[in-house]
Design brief:
Helices cover about 35% and strands about 15% of the residues. It is α/β, with parallel strands linked by helices. The protein folds into 2 domains: about 5-100, Beta Polymerase, domain 3 (2-Layer Sandwich), CATH 3.30.210.10; about 110-350, TIM Barrel (Alpha-Beta Barrel), CATH 3.20.20.140. The strands form 3 sheets. A 7-stranded parallel beta sheet has the order 5-6-7-8-9-10-11. The protein has a two-stranded antiparallel ribbon with strand order 1-2. A two-stranded antiparallel sheet has the order 3-4. Strand 3 (about 55-60) and strand 4 form a beta hairpin. The longest helix is centred in the middle third of the chain and has 17 residues, at about 165-180. The protein is elongated and about 75 Å long.
């Protein structure tokens, strides 16, 4: 197939996949790339600023008012012509990204390399596919310095939730494993069910034995908005809750978020000093990235949790980081961009508020 620029073609593959192919002259490549990566709202906002400066987008390229081709060597050059700093591709949504750009600031967004450990992982003690030692080794191989094991609590019987005696046995195993590790630490966590009345699963003494607690709703999703909100707010009042897990319960393409007042939830988390999870399981991606700016404004630490049930599931954090970047998250605002000792201090500070 021979195509002369400028042109666009769509290729349909036998497996149903589609490829949009845009052919442009070399001089227009940066502009065409920018057009393909920005939402229509973002493109419109930047195009309006370009128009104010005598430029127009035409045939996937940038032209001067007199008809000549503008000098756009790369995306930074295009933004500069619009009087803006470069905007990372993930932020090109037509929301608040031009606030920084118009002030000449390029945001220093979270990167995967900023993560120092992970805090939401399952093992064969509940419904995971690898034992704790294997999960720890895989986490260390990825360059992290700690892993938080958060097997399900007893209410999640369908997922092999741990009974109290099993929790104590698991803690003994973690203690023995930590004695053999160098420059790495396994943290004792749980994904505790938020019960229907808002209490956390397990009794007080057992809850106190964990290094940190991720608390999540796993049942009674059909509660009305007021009841579900009250349920989660009560859970947040428990100072042993370190992180609110997958806060809307959604499963993409299969289950809608449960009815809940997320403004009230985020305000409560900020008041009590709890972190909120961005669950990086690709079926969840919950907290929705659109709520991250609100969480940031309230000063809520965000935990990027892989919700890993296998060693390969650890890599979910890459997806989570991408979604976090869309919301403008910085490393300084990310709980697991902190060291293990800092995470433990954060959890202890929560308990000190109780």
């Amino acid at each position: 197939m021979t195509v002369t620029a400028p042109a666009a073609r769509r290729i349909d593959f036998v497996d149903g996949a589609r490829l949009a192919l845009t052919v442009v002259h070399d001089r227009d490549f940066a502009t065409a790339l920018w057009l393909a990566t920005g939402s229509s709202d973002h493109v419109s906002l930047v195009a309006a600023r370009l128009a104010e400066r005598g430029f127009v987008i035409q045939d996937d390229g940038l032209r001067e008012a007199g008809g000549g081709c503008a000098d756009v060597r790369d995306e930074r050059a295009l933004y500069s012509l619009a009087g803006l700093a470069w905007v990372p591709p993930e932020r090109r949504e037509g929301l608040d990204e031009l606030d920084d750009a118009s002030a000449g600031r390029e945001p220093s967004l979270l990167q995967a390399s900023d993560l120092r450990g992970i805090l939401h992982c399952h093992s064969t003690w509940s419904d995971g596919k690898a034992d704790i030692a294997t999960m720890a080794a895989a986490a260390k191989l990825r360059g992290w310095s700690y892993i938080g094991i958060t097997d399900h609590s007893q209410a999640a019987f369908y997922a092999g939730g741990l009974k109290p005696d099993q929790v104590r046995e698991q803690h003994d195993e973690i203690d023995r494993l930590n004695e053999t590790l160098t420059d790495f630490r396994v943290l004792k966590g749980t994904e505790a069910d938020i019960l229907t009345d808002g209490r956390l699963d397990y009794d007080d003494d057992l809850l106190d034995s964990f290094d940190f607690i991720v608390a999540s709703v796993h049942s009674r999703f059909a509660m009305d908005r007021a009841t579900m909100t009250a349920r989660v707010l009560r859970a947040l009042d428990d100072p042993r809750l370190t992180i609110l897990g997958h806060p809307t319960g959604r499963l993409l393409l299969s289950r809608e978020p449960y009815a809940i007042d997320m403004d009230a939830v985020l305000e409560k988390a900020a008041t009590v000093g709890a972190a909120v999870e961005l669950n990086a399981d690709p079926h969840r991606l919950d907290l929705d990235w659109r709520l991250i700016p609100r969480a940031r404004a309230l000063g809520i630490p965000i935990e990027i949790g892989p919700d890993a049930h296998s060693t390969s599931g650890l890599d979910n954090v890459t997806i989570g980081v991408g979604m976090a970047r869309k919301g403008g998250l910085r490393a300084s605002e990310t709980l697991n961009a902190r060291s293990a000792s800092e995470v433990l201090s954060f959890a202890r500070s929560r308990r000190g508020r109780g």
